[in-house]
Amino acid sequence: MARRNDKRSRLVTAADKLFHEQGVSTTTLANIAQLADVPLGNVYYYFKSKESIVLAVIDYRRKLIQAQFDELNGIDSTLVRLQTLVRQTTAHSEQTANFGDALGSLCQELGKQGGQIAAAAADLMQEIMNWCEKQFVSLGKGEKAKQLAMILLSSLQGISLLTLTFKNATYTNQQADYLVNWLETV
Amino acid sequence: MARRNDKRSRLVTAADKLFHEQGVSTTTLANIAQLADVPLGNVYYYFKSKESIVLAVIDYRRKLIQAQFDELNGIDSTLVRLQTLVRQTTAHSEQTANFGDALGSLCQELGKQGGQIAAAAADLMQEIMNWCEKQFVSLGKGEKAKQLAMILLSSLQGISLLTLTFKNATYTNQQADYLVNWLETV
DNA sequence: GTCTATAGGCAGATAGAC
DNA sequence: GTCTATCTGCCTATAGAC
User: Fold this and answer.
1) Confidence at residue B135, expressed as pLDDT on a 0 to 100 scale
2) For chain B, what percent of residues have pLDDT higher than 70?
3) Nucleotide nearest residue A47, measured CA to C1'
4) Is the confidence at residue B161, as pLDDT, over 70?
5) What per-residue confidence (pLDDT) applies to B5?
6) Cα–Cα dist A164/B25, whole Å
7) Average pLDDT over residues B68-94
8) Is the CB of B48 under 7 A from strand C?
9) Cβ of B151 under 8 Å from any chain A Cβ?
10) Which residues of chain A are within 8 Å of residue B164 when distances are taken between CB atoms?
């Protein structure tokens, strides 16, 4: 059972990395199996199709984001909590310059295809949106909280795309500075 | 010669549509040929590879954007010029909800692969960035013009992604309202 | 549970008749 | 210039030995 989970999780993290770096459709099961050091045919013992691997990756992403929120929720000040979320994006700005934002890429690629997979990725983005909205409510923004969450999230996603496009991590870092200030004036 | 250009341009517009709706890597030459009503084998008389079709599509996108800027440049007020750019995004908000932003999708998908194609798509995004920066300079924003262009463009790209993700054109429309006001307070 | 071998299909690209 | 037929290789998925 330990070994089963071990191979399964190795496949998921390998798929997550490759989906982020190359995109879902250009990543083959052979790529994933090789990176996870699992024989190709064995992949189908753990996942019945490529689609189910994508779902497992989205679930893995959900856990990563949940852990991030658990950490953020430990911060007393709501303003600092939001500012820390923004600051955290700069930690991977080099990775963003090379491959973009992992969730944003998934939503962009899968969103067009529609179906169950797109919905699963959208759910995850919605969770982030909800968390942000909750923070703005906590800041007393009331009815404006939803729109503020939309502005913040779209700014973060947009700058990730520009950072990837221009292959320049500085964009993410500058935007983070701007947004940290913006949060204080909102 | 007329026929040559006719088939060629039919292939380019078909590819442009399919790349936008399905993504580049999932679109096959057979898909493009069928939509353009050109036999599959004949595609290679006009393009030596799929990659060269992608480059032609980016070039086609460049002309579309150039035409858009030609129109915008006819507007006297710089502020109204920028506001019109923002308002224009709402014209395709339904399409955005289904397939995202055409150029943004290209940059997202191709950006990871790197190489000549990614650079061509980035060039196009840079042209938009430059145009926006020029407007902010014209508004007397001086050194801040570059950052303001970045903020505007990332907001537009980010909201396109969220509009696609949540399959809701309202996001684009609300963000346009917000940005039109923001432009006045900047 | 694990892995090899391979089926079956479709992709990009080419050859060559017309 | 145009189009049919096809090559070659890779991809997802399965069969079945161990």
Assistant:
1) 98
2) 98
3) D13
4) yes
5) 73
6) 18
7) 98
8) yes
9) yes
10) 107-108, 111-112
Of B112, B122, B147, the CB nearest to A22: B112
pLDDT of residue B4: 57
Nearest CA among A168, A160, A95, A91 for reference residue B161: A160
Q: What's the angle, vertex CA A151, arms to CA A129 and CA A59, rounded to 5? A: 25
Nucleotides of C under 7 A from a protein CB: 1-6, 10-16
A21 interaction partners in chain B (CB closer than 8 Å)? 112
CATH number at residue B176: 1.10.357.10
Q: Is A88 touching B (CB cutoff 8 A)?
A: no
Q: Does residue B38 approach strand C to less than 7 Å at its CB?
A: no
Q: What is the pTM of this model?
A: 0.97
Chain B residue with Cα closest to A18: B112
d(CA A149, CA A135) in angstroms, rounded, equals 9
Read off the pLDDT of each residue in B146-174 and give the average, rounded to a whole number: 98
Q: How many domains does chain A have?
A: 1
> For an interface test with A, which of B165, B166, B180, B186 has the most A Cβ atoms less than 10 Å from its Cβ?
B165
CB A112 within 8 A of CB B23: yes
Q: Is the CB of A40 under 7 A from strand D?
A: yes
Of B121, B10, B149, the residue nearest B55 (C-alpha) = B121
Structure tokens at A80: 């600092």
pLDDT, mean over chain B = 97
**Distance (Å) of CA B68 to CA A88, B101, B149:** 37, 15, 17
**What is the predicted pLDDT for the residue at A4?**
58
Q: Reduce the DSSP state of residue B141 to 3 states and report it.
A: coil
What domain range includes position A87? 2-185
- Using 50 as the pLDDT threshold, list the residues of chain A that sit under it: 1-2
- Per-residue pLDDT reduced to its tens digit, A48-96: 999 999 999 999 999 999 999 999 999 999 999 999 999 999 999 999 9
| Residues A64 and A124 sit within 8 Å (Cβ to Cβ) | no
- Taking the Cβ of residue A100 and every Cβ of chain B, the question of whether any pair is shorter than 8 Å is answered with yes
- Encoded tokens for B74: 């006819």
pLDDT of residue A5: 75
